[in-house]
Every structure is written in structure tokens, then in C-alpha cells.
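ok so for the tutorial part 2 we go from a plain amino acid sequence to predicted C-alpha cells. step 1 is just haveing the sequence, like this:
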Amino acid sequence: MRTLTVTGHGAASAAPDTAVVRLSAVHRAGSLAEALSGAESARAEVVAAAGDLVVSTMNLSVWPVREEGQAAAFEARHSLTVAAGDLEAANDLLSRLAASVGDRLQVDGVDLTVKDPSAALGRAREAAFADARATAEHLAALADTTLGQVESLAEGGGSAPPVHFAALGKQLDVGLQPGETTLSASLTVTWSLG
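step 2 — the prediction. this is what the C-alpha cells look like for a chain of 194 residues:
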């Protein structure tokens, strides 16, 4: 049996509706113990400000800091993520954190994602299949034959890359804007040839 195998690509857009805030509770002090204690109190303030939101530790680190003309010190960093839910909740969280944690807070970024990407991924797969079919029909016509039935179909994977919000600025209302993210899919389809 003669066959033709083609890979098609498709994409669909969706508005992000979920935010995960990446941040660090940071403290610098003259001793390692003081640096850790300060970072811990900043972490506790983050957890208190987050309320019912899910807070997860990503990393805890401490290192010596030596700057010319200054006494040796240590800096401790407790890196966290907060699953803020929707964008309004993330904006409110950032405002509360700025007020309660202050200078001991570093916002590393906000990842905006699509909570349920299934509809957009379905549209991306449909576009990928249409792309594969169009290419296969063109190649079959060049070979002076026609497409038969689909013999195999394999998905190359879908993706929903996070949208990174890097710089939050100094204002309390950071105005997170969801924009759009592109979800993609690829399908490899094998047709028999007529």
C-alpha cells in the first residue's frame, strides 16, 4: 500500500484568565541568623497577605554579601509562588504585598495562563488537521493520485506558553492586562493513496 505522511500545524488564541505570582521575601543583615530570621518574617507577611490563596516555597537561599566600603553581610531569599486565581485577585494581592511587606518584597514575575485551554487546543488541532490535509491534497495532486482514508494520526503535542509580566512598576494598582496567548498543536497524518 502506498501512503503519504504529512505534518500539519495549527494555532488558536485565548485570553489568559489565571495568574501565578512569583516573588521573593528578601532580607539583608549582619549575620546569617539575622538574615534568615528577617526573610522568614517577610515570608510570614506574604502568607498573611495572601490569605486563602495557595503559597508554595520554590527555594530558600542565603549567601554572603561583600560590597566595597561596607561591613560584610548576608542576604537571605525565600522564593515563593502564589496561585492568585484570576487577574483581579493577582492585582489585589500585589497591592496588599507592597503595603505589608514593603522593601523586603521582590516580585520576580507574574505568569498569566489559560485555566482551561481545552477549547482553544481543540481549535488548534482542527487547524493542524486542515493544514495537513491541504498539504497532502496538494502533494497527492502533484503525484497524480488522490488521498484515501486516514491510516494513522499522531499528535505532536499542544502547548500553552505562559505570558510573562516582568516589570511591575512602583504603583500599587499594577493593572494586569491578560492580552492573548497562542496555543498550538501539530498533527502527523498518514493517508493511503488512491
